[in-house]
Amino acid sequence: MMDVTRSHGAITTTARFSQDTSVTLPGTPDQVSAARAFLLRAIEDPALHDVAELLVSEIMTNAIVHTESGRGGQVRVSVRPADTGIRVEVEDEGPRESGRPAVPRRQEELAEAGRGLLIVRLLAARWGFRAGGNGTTTWFELDTGRPTG
Predict the structure, then answer these.
(1) What is the pTM of this model?
(2) The domain spanning residue 38 has which CATH number?
(3) Helix, strand or coil for residue 30?
């Protein structure tokens, strides 16, 4: 089992979030919009909507393109309270080839892809991933400015 955490304080609001909710979606490209719609319903504070939509789109797309979830599998998206905000988790069915989850890396200036996790790193207060026997969970947290729960 691998657990990696990164921290960066980019987005802060004063919202509250107090319930756990999740949805399981087919691992197909058309379901990225379903994941965004799910988040908009789950997160009450409109100040978090834009960044949450962008980050879940990037992680969901990675799950579909780079993991077994995109080969007829499923992706689970969860939202729950975190210590000082909300936590969004995207659980996939594990990497296709290398056996290791994707990590952010520097891209060529004109590259048309490969910036998703860099965007997550820049905009999330904290983010990371857990790799285990059943797949990988990539997560990010957005701060709401007060303890939750």
Answers:
(1) 0.78
(2) 3.30.565.10
(3) helix
